[in-house]
Specification:
Structural class: mainly beta
Distance between the termini: 21 Å
Helix content: 10-25%
Order of helices and strands: EEEEHHEEE
Number of strands: 7
Strand content: 25-35%
Shape: globular
Number of helices: 2
């Protein structure tokens, strides 16, 4: 993971909360074979917002950067919806977990296409996309969509604690 700072408030208190997916071994580590990517949900202990970090590394490609990152933020109510969903997950910190919750999150996040430009590193990060994560009270299902009521956010700079 690269982004430990909250993209919304700039706090260094964005903590890993749910490891959605990971593929491959990081570049430079034993067993690395061209690609490494992950999706992880973090929650800021200062402002309560959640963020999703999407990372893609592919050192085979010569047509695009080897390192690409995207960030998505969501309100504290969305964090509560994810907590509700996660209560039946046996291993929230295991990106290889095959439970229904992990599979649901992988599918939902795979459907999100925001149009925000990628960053090559945390220092390069400029924009993030707001998501709406809600709980459908009729059937207790969670849904994730791009929050079209908000503009793209500008990544906050690290703020002193």
């Amino acid at each position: 993971m690269t982004q430990r700072n909250c993209v919304v408030c700039g706090s260094a208190k964005a903590m890993p909360f749910f490891f959605v997916q990971q593929r491959g071994v990081p570049h430079g580590k034993t067993g690395h074979n061209v690609a490494h990517d992950y999706k992880v949900i973090l929650v800021c202990e200062k402002c309560g917002c959640g963020q999703i970090e999407v990372y893609s590394h592919d050192c085979w490609s010569h047509e695009e950067p080897w390192e690409m990152l995207w960030w998505y933020a969501f309100q504290p109510a969305g964090v509560e919806a994810v907590k509700y969903l996660m209560q039946d997950c046996p291993a929230p910190s295991n990106p290889s977990c095959e439970c229904d919750i992990h599979q649901f999150m992988r599918h939902q996040l795979g459907q999100i296409h925001s149009g925000i430009p990628h960053a090559r590193s945390e220092r390069d990060a400029q924009k993030y996309c707001w998501l709406y994560i809600g709980l459908n009270k009729e059937d207790n299902s969670v849904y994730i969509t791009i929050d079209k009521s908000k503009e793209f956010g500008t990544v906050a700079q690290l703020r002193p604690q």
